[in-house]
Amino acid sequence: MKTGTVKFFNESKGYGFITDDNTKEDFFVHVTGLNGAQIQQNDKVEFETQEGKKGINAINVKRV
């Protein structure tokens, strides 16, 4: 599992970005990748990544 911080998340649109703690790379996250969790800006999270239609997405996201 990777760890990171929620950079931005728009609840009404259902997407946002997570910044990886180690690489500082930003990953797209969609509400379907949240594993039932609710996240907001500046939350610390654990996540996995998976290739999506437009690049690598964060999946199985959960707050820590």
TrEMBL record:
Tell me which UniProt keywords the record has, alphabetically.
Cytoplasm
* Compartments where located: Cytoplasm
Residue ranges of the CSD domain?
A: 1-63
Organism of origin is Adhaeribacter terrigena
Cross-referenced PROSITE patterns: CSD_2
User: Could you tell me what this protein is called?
Assistant: Cold shock domain-containing protein
Against PANTHER family, the record matches this protein to: COLD SHOCK DOMAIN CONTAINING PROTEINS
